[in-house]
Amino acid sequence: MEQTYFRKGFGLKDAIQGALSEDYHSAIVDEVRGRGYALTVDGLTVRLAREFGFCYGVDRAVEYAYETRRKFPERRIFLVGEIIHNPHVNAKLSSMGIVLIERSEAGEFDFSSVTPDDVVILPAFGVTKEDFDRLRALGCVLVDTTCGSVLNVWKRVESYARDGYTALIHGKYVHEETKATASQVTKYDGGRYLVVRDMAEARLICDFIEHGSADTGTLRSKFARAASAGFDFGRDLERIGVANQTTMLSGESLAIAAEVRAAMMRRHGEAAAAEKFRSFDTICSATQDRQDAVLRMLEGGVDVCVVIGGYNSSNTTHLAALCAERVPTWHVEDSACLRPEARTIRHRPVGAHEEVTQADWLPAGDLVVGVTAGASTPNNKVGEVIERIYATRGIEVGPALERA
After folding, report:
1. Number of structural domains, the chain?
2. Domain ends where: 257, 279, 301?
3. Which regions of 2-149 does DSSP assign to beta strands (E)?
4. What residue spans of 300-360 are helical by DSSP H?
5. What is the dihedral of CA 169, 170, 174, 175, to 10 degrees?
6. Helix 129-138 and helix 176-183: axis angle, to 10°?
7. HEC states along 212-223?
8. What is the CATH number of the domain that holds 101?
9. Which residue of 102, 195, 238, 259 shows the fewest CB atoms closer than 10 Å?
10. pLDDT (tens digit, 9 = 90+) per residue, 85-104?
11. DSSP designation for 362
12. What does the pLDDT read at residue 283?
């Protein structure tokens, strides 16, 4: 019988390495790294964060997708949604004949075209338990690229549900990863989850834990899409286990866990709270490393920052938020957002939902531009942005590297 589930690759890394390098490598990034992560030409310095771009989990997912195309050259291959939150990578997979499965109008993925003879790639975020079960029932080949850090969160959430704790998840309830994580509680009868986006929402829950409320209608309305079916605030907040979407700001996740624990202690007493509350730091190491590297870069002194990555990439938006607390920051999706000849930049401000265009964004005089990129941004896109930053000053990177 044919094997229909794969998680550990096909041993074809050497065969696809050339294509990966051609599609995503950047000689400019290599040069800047080799020069101590900084390049200065004619008074303009570009300083790279020491951790940026593709993380291990993204590398693995993209490599696995390339291997899948190589392994099954004659079969139809589908991808559930986006493999990562980077439009260029997803477009490249599409050009390789990998078909992205879209959501239907009802919000569910439409698997109606998938047959038992097809291959389906699961993205780095994972898929919900319900979608996984639907695909398994079809009998198609599944190639699972779910990141190991995400799987670690799933194990925590499963353990909460198994032991009768509600999973309180710090994340974005519309994000694929958080949807997949929340669904893991359905493996157990009575499993419950509640998603809080930030500290403000967490404090609403803490206030209810500590003081209760005769009117839970407001909470039910606010968290209607962020809670498990039939969630009862009076019943389901008695025992809580905290987890998080792996790409959230680590400091906020830890602070939320501390706030919930304190509320449980005030409500139940320290001894009882120890039994009613659980928490584990499930921010992935790559997310943490990139956030730490940005802070170190800022401490080293930069005048403005450019953050590169998809606007729907959670870890990228959090990097932009960290930078924006210190210096003017421009979150761009790719190099097309920079128009050197017009000295403009098209970007999405932190917290906004639409792009805006800024003229004369690069100040005159000696300047240090900090550059980082989200975990789903390939090096070639970082290199292209660096080229256009210099081009805004009329500097060609090639000759600049020769004399730098």
Report:
1. 3
2. 279
3. 5-6, 38-41, 44-48, 77-80, 98-101, 119-122, 141-144
4. 314-324
5. -100
6. 80
7. CCCCCHHHHHHC
8. 3.40.50.11270
9. 102
10. 999 999 999 999 999 998 88
11. S
12. 74
